[in-house]
Design goal:
Distance between the termini: 33 Å
Helix content: 40-55%
CATH topology: Undecaprenyl pyrophosphate synthetase
Number of domains: 1
Strand content: 5-15%
Largest sheet: 6 strands, parallel
Strand order of the largest sheet: 3-4-2-1-5-6
CATH superfamily: Decaprenyl diphosphate synthase-like
Number of strands: 6
Bound molecules: farnesyl diphosphate
CATH architecture: 3-Layer(aba) Sandwich
Number of helices: 8
Shape: globular
Length: 249
């Protein structure tokens, strides 16, 4: 596959959210354990992070571990956490070199302590980088985030700090763990599955979805370029008519 797809540099999505799926099947296809697929998935994480930064993407969110993933066999969960710690430790220097800021969304306090500490250090080290923000969704589920947001708002209401009439979309957006991050323009899911699996449900109300059969460990910059080219061929209407959109062009 050629990496030479012509992309409109003025219409690069500001925020791309990815569901990295298919690691287990990739390993199984080769007669290997599932963790082998996760290990190879790290190379795709590196390639796509670098590729997105090169294109001028400002925010890249990767669904690295969902709340539901805790239900996987303990051996796989432990291996994933170990891989995460190892990768963050090893790649912080690359993030610095590429001027990428790391941050997270999700229930970070449910992760193993060494993982929390590694993340804390990497977030602190990279906090002043401005080229791109890499957001790892860890122990994350959109429904958890929405429930959490509702609770925060209920507490404010009960304390008399706000009234029911003050509750609007901005207040809800501002109470989510994604509050400082613009909504994704494009969501990519690999491995042929056509679901959003409890990912950024509120934030993706108007995102464009791109599904590919490529398994995550095989996903490379050229596939990212293909996804963005596909995105650039779409008309984003946000509920308006096609005519209204062409009038403002
Ligand atoms: C989904 O594939 C993948 C995951 C649940 C984990 C993704 C983790 C990585 C790519 C490695 C570590 C990440 C970082 C950010 C360092 P699956 O296991 O559900 O695959 P399957 O559907 O084929 O079983």
């Amino acid at each position: 596959m050629s990496t030479e797809i012509a992309l409109d540099k003025n219409r690069i999505p500001k925020h791309i959210a990815v569901i990295m799926d298919g690691n287990g099947r990739w390993a199984k296809n080769q007669g290997k354990f599932r963790i082998f697929g996760h290990q190879h998935g790290v190379q795709s994480v590196k390639d796509i992070t670098e590729g997105a930064a090169e294109l001028g993407v400002e925010y890249l969110t990767l669904y690295a571990f969902s709340t539901e993933n805790w239900n996987r066999p303990k051996i796989e969960v432990n291996a994933l956490m170990t891989l995460l710690v190892k990768t963050i430790k090893k790649e912080t220097a690359t993030l610095m070199k590429n001027q990428i800021r790391l941050t997270t969304i999700g229930q970070i306090d449910t992760l193993p302590l060494d993982c929390q500490e590694e993340l804390r250090q990497a977030i602190e080290t990279t906090k002043n980088n401005t080229r791109m923000t890499l957001i790892l969704a860890l122990s994350y589920s959109a429904k958890w985030d929405i429930v959490n947001s509702v609770k925060k708002i209920a507490v404010q209401c009960k304390a008399g700090e706000i009234s029911i009439d003050d509750i609007n979309e901005d207040l809800i957006s501002g109470s989510l763990s994604t509050k400082k991050i613009p909504d994704p323009d494009l969501m990519i899911r690999t491995s042929g599955e056509h679901r959003i699996s409890n990912y950024l449900l509120w934030e993706m109300a108007y995102s464009e979805f791109y599904f590919t059969d490529v398994l995550w460990p095989d996903f490379r910059k050229a596939h990212l370029h293909e996804a963005i080219a596909n995105y650039q061929n779409r008309e984003r209407r946000f509920g308006k008519t096609g005519e209204q959109i062409s009038e403002v062009k």
